[in-house]
Amino acid sequence: MKSLIECEPPQLNVPDELVFIISPNGTNGATESDFKKFELTCSGDKPVQWSTNVGSRLIDYQSVHNDSGFYSTIKFTSPSYVLTGYFNCSYIGEEGGDSKSTYIYIDDGRRGFVKYYFRPLTVKVYLGDPMILDCRTSRPDIKVNNIKVNLLNQKQISPLPYKFDPRVGVIVEDLKSFPNQTQIKGIICFNNYSLSDKLTFKPEISLRKPLIENHNGSDYLVGEEIALNCSTYMNEKYKPHFEWTLPNTNAIRVLKEFVNKSLSISTLLIKNASLSDSGQYVCKISALNLFESNVKNIEVKENTAQFVKFTDKNDSTVNKKIVNDGDDFLWDMQFEGYPRNLIYTFYNPYGDLFLHKDKRANVNYIYEEGKLSLSIKKVTAEDFGNYSARLEAPNGSYDENYV
């Protein structure tokens, strides 16, 4: 057996952080001409690729392969604060594998922030989740030194607690302690680079859409119990309010609620379902003055007699399948039956229930297509003989098939 050749991770020609300060004469750092000579190179034993959160308008890529390995080089056509960001190198086709990255700051003397928006930027966030504002700065020593909040219908500007990382921006962990958080008109970031340097964000706070689940698909029989779970995830500091709307307003319902840290569940139970319980079930959640909902369509049908029947029933003395030693065996059958939770069992030539004992055996049961199949990989002489399949309804009625 050939052993796998392990490759070293890709390598960069620079440390994990670089800071370029551009000035006309290079007094405080580098000139524009010096910066244009800079090359960012990644090398490896296999073809390499770049990924970055920086736009490609001012970037040129070049890849080469020679006797010493694979190389990919980035050259910047012009120094600009917009080039500040991560540059990550990995092997092609191995996303999530070994990689190397560097973060480059570029201060061209124009702005302290990396981004520039002509109008407030909308930031979508779920209630209680951390809010990240892209107030990244063009140098690690440039800080966001003030955050102010404008409220709807109010002129006053309120302070807001936050954390700052020059590579990430402003992180607002939670607005729980902030009054009227859904009435925020804008959040403004200021830095210590320039009094005129500011970015404005407009938070759009919402709730996650709840999920409605049940274990019977969407079909129930008259007299059965309808059980629906409506669930949502939300910061533990908040508690969602659940409200159900049913097609049958006279239905006798039982409601239960369960909370496990950030997961909240409302369970709806309707016993002894009737035809009038068919229709749309709406689960609406609310917190503060925010709302979200989801809909589940349920159909209640008349009770149908349970039955099961193989439509291609065979006699073992007539239905024969020729399989050579070492080949795979496949037995396909068609059936009709009700309800969907039919129970299948298979017996081998020795009269044993063998599915759970033989890892080579596998069963495929597709109720919607009326299909039942048995497969056995790489049969041996000991596998040859008569097999039988039994399909049984919950009331005990059954049918058998042979091969």
UniProtKB/TrEMBL annotation:
SUPFAM superfamilies named among the record's database cross-references: Immunoglobulin
Keyword Nuclease: no
Family matches, as InterPro entries: Ig-like_dom (IPR007110), Ig-like_dom_sf (IPR036179), Ig-like_fold (IPR013783), Ig_sub (IPR003599), PDGFRL (IPR042495)
Statement: the UniProt record of this protein carries the keyword Acyltransferase: no
Annotated keywords: Receptor
Every Ig-like domain range: 203-299
Signal peptide coordinates: none
Stored PANTHER family: PLATELET-DERIVED GROWTH FACTOR RECEPTOR LIKE (PTHR15360), PROTEIN KINASE DOMAIN-CONTAINING PROTEIN (PTHR15360:SF4)
Quaternary structure annotation from Swiss-Prot or TrEMBL: Forms a complex composed of PDGFRL, TNK2 and GRB2.
Name of the featured protein: Platelet-derived growth factor receptor-like protein
Organism encoding this protein: Armadillidium nasatum
